[in-house]
Amino acid sequence: MRATSKSISFVAVLALFAPALVAAHGQDSKASIDGRWDASLVNHGTVIPFRLDISGSGPSLKGTFYNGFQPYDGTTSATYNEGKLVLNIEHYLTTITATLQDGQLVGEVSSQSRASTSNYTFQASRHVESKVSAKDVPSIAGSWIIPLDAPSSKGEKAFRFIVEQHGAEVAASILRVDGDTGAYSGTYKDGKWVLSHFDGSRPGVIQVSLKSDGTLEVLQNNGRPRNAAPDAPTAGSNAAAYQPASAPAGDKQYAEPVDSRYASTLIAYRSDIAIAKGLPQPENYDTHTTVRDPNQKFTFDFPDVNGKLVSNDDPRFKGKVVLAIVTGTWCPNCHDEAQYLVQLDKKYRDKGLAIVALDFEEPEQQGSLEREKAFVKQYGVKYTYLIAGAPSEMWEKVPELVNLNTWPATVFIGRDGLVKGVHSGFASPASGKFNQQLKDEFTARIEQLLAERPTNQLAEESSAPDVGQQ
Asked: Is the residue at 204 inside a domain?
């Protein structure tokens, strides 16, 4: 893979999406802020544009974020008083604070994840429809494979790159074994797409261009405003894959992982071409994590949010098909899965399915559980949530699984208490057909397990006298 310069120039993006800061004397405390805004986050010179819709007023005021072309998530609360806007995304511990100045919003964003706080400059101006022509725009829609120069810290040899295209506009996501990046989106200009994403979490920018040999060059911005990568290693993982990044003097919140998943340059091949060339393929989500002993029951015994211990022997789980989710509310892919699990819970709860989240929260979150409570409320979670410990304790607390290193991981447990399968990660709607494949797989597995009779029922049937015999 070719080496590139250390950083990607996003000056053009700044000119297009991030209007200059304006003087405070222009504040208009009475103007309406309802409508669509072209917003951006700025961190260490990197501009991350995103679409923000603001609607309602007073108690009904709301901010809506987009995942590619679709509205995806929103604020948990919002206020606008005397020209000051506050948007709270409490299920991500993210807050946007801005002041309306000469028709533009200017302020900052604070976001906390995995014990680190990220701060960004925030700017937004009224949305202006793009008039970019789709003429002569190359077609890059479809599924691509990104082979890696070296395995990632999770053992991956390749990623998927999924592209949805509407004329000059593109929404694309990188799908790894633990889930996707969310849908980066943007418009074709000067021979490339500069795509960006922010939905209250995981802000990012990539630049995509079609090369003369038919491959895609994907340039990633490596600078990540946090103390470590999202899945920074702890006990049992590859700590050598990470090292401090070059950063402004004294800035301890800026780190850049060496892990190949954050390489500056990635090259993507059409899926059929990658197969024909014999290039490495992405991980199998159903075999990446396995069960240590298929004849051993999957057990758990953790407190709920009220401190009451709940185990696998609780009546709500006995004799049922159970989905045990290794998760954490700091994990964006876990947010994606929770919204789907709520649907499964509604559909199959009365048919014998029980879902339990084994939630690993940072030590400083375990006291108030502020984010966990907002998470449960935002997504309407009705299934059981248990506080299993800190992320670094995952291997100790879930010893039944081998190569457990993704957030989330979904464990399928039969009525007999034995593990029937483990699915690593979660491919969200941003992953296109792979999201549908996941849903089809989950549905088939659940229905197959529900169709199996409980062991005690089989025992009773086998011991009952045959009334047809004399």
From this structure: yes
| Alpha carbon of residue 163 to chain centroid | 17
Ramachandran area for residue 236 (φ above 0: left; ψ -120 to 50: alpha; else beta): left
In the structure encoding, which two tokens stand for residue 51, read together? Answer: 């679409």
Q: What is the pLDDT along the chain (470 residues), one digit of tens a residue?
A: 444 443 444 434 444 444 443 333 344 555 689 999 999 999 888 899 999 999 998 889 999 999 999 998 999 999 999 999 999 999 999 999 999 999 999 999 999 877 678 899 999 999 988 777 778 899 999 999 999 999 999 999 999 999 999 999 999 999 999 999 999 999 999 999 999 999 998 899 999 999 999 999 999 974 454 433 444 333 333 322 322 233 333 333 334 446 888 899 999 999 999 999 999 999 999 999 999 999 999 999 999 999 999 999 999 999 999 999 999 999 999 999 999 999 999 999 999 999 999 999 999 999 999 999 999 999 999 999 999 999 999 999 999 999 999 999 999 999 999 999 999 999 999 999 999 999 999 999 999 999 997 655 544 444 445 544 43
Number of domains in the chain: 3
Rg, the chain, Cα only: 24
Same domain, 184 and 84: no
Q: Are residues 347 and 438 in the same domain?
A: yes
Domain containing 340 — which CATH number?
A: 3.40.30.10
Question: Do 445 and 330 sit in the same domain of this protein?
Answer: yes
Domain membership of residue 343 (yes or no) is yes
Q: Are residues 360 and 441 in the same domain?
A: yes
Domain hosting 84: range is 11-22+32-126
* Pair 308, 435 in one domain: yes
The residue assigned the tokens 């470590």 is 228
In this prediction the pTM is 0.84
Q: Which DSSP helix (H) or strand (E) runs through 376? A: helix 370-379
Distance CA 186, CA 219 (A): 14
Residues with Cβ within 8 Å of 273's Cβ and at least 6 positions away in sequence, in order, are 214
Residues 187 and 301 in one domain: no
Task: Tell whether 103 and 186 lie within a shared domain.
Answer: no
